[in-house]
Amino acid sequence: MACILLFSNRNLFGIGHTFRSLHMNRNIFFIARRVRPAWIVLVVLVLFGLSAPGRAETLRLLSPDGKYLSAEYHRGDARRPALLVLHGFLQTNEFQTTQSLISNLSMLGYTVLGPNFSLGISDRRQSMQCQAPHNHRFEDDLREIDFWVGWLKNQGHSRVILVGHSWGSQHALGYVEAYPQAPVAAVIAVSLVRTEQAAKVQTRQIAKAQAREAGHDNSLQPYALSFCKSFMATPRSYLSYARWDDKRVIDILARLQERKLPVYAVIGSKDNRIDDEWLHELRRSAQVSVIEGANHFFSSIHEFDLSDRLEALLTRIDATPDGK
To answer: Which of 64, 134, 285, 312 is 20 to 30 A from 12 (CA-CA)?
Structure first.
């Protein structure tokens, strides 16, 4: 007996979610991922008796600071490294690119955990607007990553691979810098962006925020940060993120290279937030691979290209104790 699925475009019909809801196994997903044309009719036969990938669970755990933290969890092979997937700036694990990463990676048999940064809000489940009041700090986000890494250790995982998208990559780098003893085998930085504000704008904003902080002015003020033209934040909140400029990212990559902690950067050639200069800088200390035609979000058929590339990197990391 068989079930026939017809679709014409992956993003239009969300095949990743369809596969997950039908509890497809790795082999069926392997077939679907290798179909490349954007407008086709694909017939997938799903036979009875196939093993199912780990079902998605929603975790809601109390953190040490009293906030509830939520995450999507797929239980996989405890003998393999667990994958901790970090979403982009002000987003959630339901953001399209993040959700695709979680869904597709879980099909490979790994344990996958995709938390939401609380951003100061207990049990946050929705993305935050730039104009919302922001009092959270980058360091708070890192503590939450450490909370989830500790939780994965308690589930029996001795190695964790951090997979970040966009600003989630900065969080991954920040975490391994601040928590050098954490059992992180490697970092995979997808769409690792550079500072998006002009240097003069960044310098002027930082100086103003530092002056406000020195004067104990904790009022909310608008700052340009990441894709936000008006990030309404306290000085402390803004500065904690603004300090993550290009130089700091490159310096940390160099230090991680000295520590022999592998960092893999996966970039789309059509990502308009990344230029050739940034690629050149990344290649100094990270292992960079470029997916032709892909944008910042790896939309449409490039989701499959990204999934293939990540599978190859994970196989490489999994094959060696130090992830090289």
So the answer is: 312
